[in-house]
Design brief:
Layout (H helix, E strand, L loop, with lengths): L9 H9 L10 E3 L9 E5 L4 E6 L7 E7 L11 E5 L6 E8 L11 E9 L12 E10 L5 E10 L4 E9 L4 E8 L7 E2 L23 E7 L4 E6 L6 E7 L12 E8 L19 E11 L1
Bound molecules: 2-acetamido-2-deoxy-beta-D-glucopyranose (3 copies).
Length: 294
Amino acid sequence: MKRPGWSFPLGAISALLLGVPMLAEAAPFTEHWAAYPSPYFYSYGGSANTATSVAQSGMTDGRALQLKLSAYPAAGVGGGITQESSSRYRYGTFTTRLKTTNCSTQPNTGIVTGFFTYFNDGGDYNGNGLPDNSEIDFEWLCAEPQVIYLTMYTDFGPTAHRRVSRILNLATGTVHSTCYYESFSGACQPLTGNENLPTTIPALAGYNSSTAHYEYGFTWTASRVTWWVVHPTTGQRITLWDYQGPASRIPANSSHFLTNIWHTNDWTPPSRPLATQPPNSARYAYVDWTAYVP
Ligand SMILES: *[C@@H]1O[C@H](CO)[C@@H](O)[C@H](O)[C@H]1NC(C)=O
Ligand SMILES: *[C@@H]1O[C@H](CO)[C@@H](O)[C@H](O)[C@H]1NC(C)=O
Ligand SMILES: *[C@@H]1O[C@H](CO)[C@@H](O)[C@H](O)[C@H]1NC(C)=O
């Protein structure tokens, strides 16, 4: 059973005593991963997995964060490797430059690379019968590394949730779907109008998230969430999804900021329905930098 993690936290008590705001305005930061650990992020996951700062050419400062998922990990985030911010952030722009996990030696591997915000303390503050879940995601599956999953959750319970999601292939410029869902088994309710902008995306020829670093970002406000990738040669932003739908479908709680890789045994990409194998050797993702601007 899931219980609220901090119904009346120490921070709130000292804030009352000292008369300071409970959640101070979050300061901007850029983590270049020149050294490890980071002052902004803590690490968790399977014991055989590691996070380290490594020398790498082509990086802004010559170094990258290396996330290593060891062979045959347990399925799920807990068996993976995650960097999670100690602070929580509400609204602002979240960016990174990363290369996702490469599964070229075993094409039917199930590995997720995630770059996202997340908060869930088990509370149902909007009273809709489901635990609130503030989450905005970029996710990739290594078996089809041209496909990007963009998702926002506002509620997440054991059998039902509330999410909007766009799935696209950036190499071909194909939007596979843009939907609202109430469970993983539920039907896609297609989104239209200001929940489905832009209706088309350009192709980024040769895009393969696992062969090169790309710069990704999203801007989160109370009424709009925009996801983009930076074109590697022109430097222009390619808007992947510019969601301007009901505020009730946009997360509202200050959230942790995370990057992770983990094994999935039940989530497969459009072209590879058999990609559920655990990796049979160690796999890696590399992060040049991670940044936040309020
Ligand atoms: C993406 O790159 C990986 C690693 O080089 C390669 O195995 C895979 O075939 C590429 N996929 C596509 C669709 O280009
Ligand atoms: C992908 O992984 C394979 C095997 O580990 C490696 O030989 C190859 O260089 C990697 N490709 C890229 C683009 O990193
Ligand atoms: C989450 O947001 C809701 C709605 O704004 C608010 O009532 C609630 O107190 C927030 N919860 C936390 C834990 O910050």
